[in-house]
Amino acid sequence: MIPFGMHRDLTSFLRALESAGELVRISEPTSPVLEITELAQRQSRRTDALLGSEDSQRTDPEFSGNGGKAILIERPEDSAFPVLINAFGSYKRVEMALGGRALEDTARVIGELTKPEPPRSIGEAIGKAKQFYPLLKIGPKRSKRDGACQEVVHTGDAVDLTTLPILRCWEHDGDYAALGYPKGVNDGIEGMGHPKIDESEWDAKYRGRFITLAGIHTIHADDRDDPKPKSHNIGMYRVQLLGKDRMAMHWHMHHDGAAHWRSWKAIGKPMPVAIVLGGPSVLPYAATCPLPPGISELLMAGFLQGEGVKLCRAKTVPLWVPSDAEMVIEGFVDTDAGYPGWDPREDGAGELGEGAVFEGPFGDHTGFYSMPDRYPITRVTAMTHKRDAVYPTTVVGLPPQEDYFLGKATERIMLPLLKTILPDVLDYDLPLYGCFHNAANIQIKKHYPLHARKVMHAIWGAGQMAWTKTLFVVEDDVDVHDLSSVMRAVWDHCKPSRDIECVHGAVDILDHAAARFGTSMKLGIDATRKVASEDLDGEDLDDPSPIPSEVACKETIAWARSCEGVLEATTPEAAPGWVFIRVDRGYDEADRAGLGGKVLDEFWNEPTAHRFVVVVGRDVDIHDHHEVLFHWVANCDFARDAQWDQSHGGDRVGFDTTPKTSGDARNNQPVRAWPPILTMPDRIKERCDELS
């Protein structure tokens, strides 16, 4: 085991950030409504951040310098708690949170523990014992004494969630009527709002505020009488402010928190929950880590910091909570609520039902609003905190944001575990444009026919990797962390009609492009060299193709520009063999339905040397291949939005990635409610010009 040096609480981590020059303070009064978001975004998009380890620069050469600095808002409006944001928003700061070591070092230790070799001598046996001995210390440390997080305790009528500087990150957060849903869905629900705040003030100041960087602590109902429940789970889910002592709990149906909720629902009892903010610097990462079943986030946190997390008993719920947290919100989640997948606009939708609220919308890490849905109400029974507590939070939105770096930490740290269940994988990359679950580049050493296909299907069945929508599989001579190299391999070795694997499967429920809730067609692109028996179409196996000539590129662009509705076209150097076409359709309108598909239909009438065509809306910069690919994976259900063409002797595939309405339905695949992309009002930008 490597030596560990951790920050046992947020105060310690904050001091370390400031000492390292990784913190800026803002002393002017700053609103939690949109303003803090805009300030955090500006930092996250800076490219002058202190660099992390050499490994992070190697595995993310384009964005390793992103992230700016952490921000401490000293005087948030209407709250006495300072706000810390963007604390994990760079490789340097994530590495500081995990003990100051490179992510690859942590990965190597995990690799040694997951594949231990038997000792060959007494000396080696003693060495192995020393290696594994620290694991005896990583279990949680429970104490009957009050924790530092319980220096101040509010229960009953003293609970007031509006005293916390909970953020509204985006303009339409919590405003379902603004996105076309009927007003009044939540009317009459007990506990909504605040007895001392009228409706108009509530809407202006408190509507659409969400806790975004808390560990949500739950246990399975079967462990309800166990003093040391083995099912203790920590997830990071969003929690919406509803009233003085009411919140809405949002978790995806495939997460452990939702499984725990279903277990309590089965016995007809409300589920105890603790919403924990702050604590040891490893906890936010551990809460997001996609651990194998049966491995607790508490154990992961203990492993990362070299000793068990200190726990104390919660005040009003039967749960253990981190003693050194900044604050804890305790309560019970109503289990009378029905399941998500409810839309009041649909015929036969029925009633919202008891114990539920129409939660959202919410500006999500996909870069779009996640649409509102039915989720259970949490009745808060206690708020506890340190006397000098700091409120940690984060912003999710168009990448890169703070969560990008937590996701890249998982990419590196979890590689040994992925290799344990799938040894074919040499390395992988979760690219920026994929927003964690939309794309992955996989590197293998190819040994036999259709090896890439075998890996694709294994990935689609591997834990949270199962939700990955698009896979690129390349060989070991391709730098999987260099997007241009991956795209070149696609051109060299992928014939669309033969080398693209299409499967229907489960996708993340945030996938707005999915024709049906939680299901979509996924795409696997085999960019490996073909070997005997892979001539699935009966044609000769391909050799690497030359990049289309300058003349061919100019002809392709000219043909594209001749199509009705096309504004611009390009054949980017970073993506050889691809054509990016920008058409006159935006996210703010419902007209010109079907334009993307019509452009592809017209484009196929002309011969071209390019095999891959991506049509985007007018709001997209087609000269930024990351932005184009972001819209490609975000806005496509490939069963509806992909078109294969073999006219004129070609073998081509096109993708309509434009915003969709019901008029874009195709191949018997509908279009669900299409969310707006996230934007910030000009008035907020102007205000933040003054603050920054």
Mind telling me the C-alpha Rg?
26 Å
What overall form do the CA principal axes indicate?
Answer: globular
Counting copies of identical and different chains, the oligomeric state is single chain
What's the average pLDDT?
90
Q: Give the tally of structural domains.
A: 4
Strand content: 15-25%
> How far is the first residue's CA from the last residue's CA?
43 Å
Q: What is the number of helical segments per DSSP (H or I, 4+ residues)?
A: 20
Which structural class should the secondary elements be placed in? alpha+beta
Q: What is the highest CATH level, the class of the largest domain?
A: Mainly Beta
Number of strands: 29
| Major beta-sheet overview | 10 strands, antiparallel
